[in-house]
Specification:
Strand 7, helix 5 and strand 8 form a beta-alpha-beta unit. The N terminus is likely disordered. The protein contains 15 helices and 22 strands. It folds into 2 domains: about 270 residues, 3-Layer(aba) Sandwich (Aldehyde Dehydrogenase, Chain A, domain 1); about 190 residues, Aldehyde Dehydrogenase, Chain A, domain 2 (3-Layer(aba) Sandwich). By secondary structure, it is of the alpha/beta class. Helix 2 packs antiparallel against helix 4 and helix 3 runs antiparallel to helix 6. Helix content is about 35%, strand content about 20%. It comes from Sphaerotilus natans subsp. natans DSM 6575.
């Protein structure tokens, strides 16, 4: 569906934002612009943190950490529930920032309400409350007539968090809140593509936090690199590209510092021959195109048996062409722009290579003209393993559908597992035993059955192979943000 022209007037003055260090606003001599992917307008001027300001942010977190860790567990939980209250109170403002800066539409269309900017803020609140309700406590790991051994969980200290641009507030909360829940303090750097909304969120929720418990720095790669390598940082949380994650891991290894890395994926979905195309098409569609495909755990490769291929592709095409794309601030918009030019150019390169390989573009295919970075939802057939659009993570609104021979489960499982990424995968069909058997052969941190990409705050989430290291969410995620200490008592 073509993109209508945007008619809303540009904002008259782009605000100049500040970082938060030790509870105080901090401006920088140099700034950079946060740009709307819908209109190209400047939304805000954002500080480029200086090396001295990065040092000050880490020092503030270090100074605040002992008192924060010393609070009774119930008090820290209560503070985080006040953070959730502030997220709810300012939901409209934060959703507006997400829609304008990231490009995610405010709301959805249809009975299911496509997850958009309002959903992202709601998820921030919900994840905060769910995490506040968890507690690790002391565990008796062994006891007999001679001894008693207790396992305690202690905070690492100062956490450096580096957040991505695709879910800029929600993933920031995924990093911030579990770290604070376990007694750590945080310095977070938002993506340079979506910094303003995250800085505003931190400014708002800091009203519930002691000064220095949560601090921000902003800027491009050098700022993140200095933060991640800082000698007073005790652990790094990073969500982003594989090459950057590898550099962070290599630097951390020189200090034996722990890291949690979520580095994306190239998730495969396998449709079994007994599946019903009408039933599974909506789930596959949103598994692939949620947030314009700009989600690490989206379906990036769809394997379909010969007998269902044409029917399923037709149903996916109809869904893709029916959804309105346009101004993310307009009610009823289902799809917004690609977030940044770098990503739009990558999509264009992969589509060009697909055409050169003989692929068929079933729908979409070319970006819309104009200042906005709008690209129609695109479905591509006629590709095979080894083609660039199959092997590379496109991270955008393009889905390759790959045929396989009915009954060749060994072959399609091998195709799904052949890459060096393993964040998520899914299998779709009717027979429960076959679904489970295929799921247990897939090499991924999460394997969904008849669904894809549905994460939950109580369920651990992390990748295999080069999709990352460590897990987030639930009790396992909390444990990853602590060090162990055993108190062993001789009776």
């Amino acid at each position: 569906m073509s993109t209508p022209p945007l008619t809303r007037p540009p904002r008259q003055i782009a605000p100049t934002l500040a970082n938060l260090v030790a509870g105080q606003p901090v401006h920088s001599p140099e700034t950079f612009a946060s740009i709307s992917p819908s209109t190209g307008e400047v939304l805000a001027q954002v500080p480029v943190s200086t090396p001295e300001q990065i040092d000050a942010a880490v020092a503030a977190a270090r100074a605040a950490q002992p008192a924060w860790a010393a609070l009774p567990d119930a008090e820290r939980a209560a503070v985080l529930n006040r953070v959730a209250d502030l997220l709810k109170e300012h939901a409209a403002l934060l959703a507006d920032w997400i829609a304008r800066e990231q490009g995610k539409p405010l709301g959805g269309v249809g009975p299911d309400q496509v997850p958009g900017a309002r959903f992202e803020v709601w998820a921030c609140e919900g994840w905060t409350r769910a995490t506040a309700a968890l507690s690790l406590g002391t565990e008796v790991v062994f006891e007999d007539e001679t001894r008693r051994d207790e396992l305690q969980r202690l905070p690492h200290g100062v956490i450096a968090a580096i957040a991505p641009w695709n879910w800029p507030l929600m993933i920031a909360i995924w990093q911030i809140v579990p770290a604070l829940r376990t007694g750590n303090t945080v310095v977070i750097k938002p993506s340079e593509y979506t910094p303003a909304g995250t800085l505003e969120m931190v400014r708002l929720i800091s009203a519930a936090l002691p000064p220095g418990v949560l601090n921000t720095v902003s800027g491009a790669g050098p700022v993140g690199a200095r933060l991640a390598a800082h000698p007073q940082v005790d652990k790094v949380l990073f969500t982003g590209s594989g090459p950057t994650g590898e550099r962070i891991a290599a630097q951390a290894a020189t200090r034996l510092m722990p890291v949690t890395l979520e580095l994306g994926g190239n998730d495969a979905a396998i449709v079994l021959p007994d599946a019903d195309p009408d039933t599974i098409a909506p789930g596959l569609f949103w598994g692939a195109f949620l947030n314009m495909g700009q989600t690490c755990a989206c379906i990036k490769r769809l394997y379909v048996p010969d007998s269902l291929h044409d029917a399923l592709v037709e149903r996916l095409r109809a869904l893709a062409e029916a959804l309105p794309m346009g101004d993310p601030l307009a009610e009823g918009t289902a799809m917004g722009p690609v977030q940044n030019r770098m990503q739009l150019d990558k999509i264009g390169r992969l589509l060009r290579l697909a055409r050169e390989a003989g692929a068929t573009v079933v729908c979409g295919g070319e970006p819309q003209p104009g200042p906005g970075l709008f690209h129609p939802l695109t479905i591509v057939t006629g590709l095979k393993d080894g083609d660039a659009l199959v092997d590379e993570e496109q991270f955008g609104p393009v889905l390759p559908v790959i045929r396989y021979r009915d009954g060749d489960l060994d072959g399609v499982v091998a195709s799904a597992n052949r890459l060096d990424l393993g964040l998520g995968a899914s299998v779709w069909g009717r027979d429960a035993a076959t679904l489970r058997a295929v799921a247990e052969r897939l090499e991924a941190g999460t394997v969904w059955i008849n669904q894809h990409g549905r994460v939950h705050p109580m369920v651990p989430f992390g990748g295999h192979k080069r999709s990352g290291s460590g897990v987030e969410f639930g009790l396992e995620g909390l444990r990853s943000l602590t060090r162990t200490r055993v108190i062993s008592l001789c009776k």
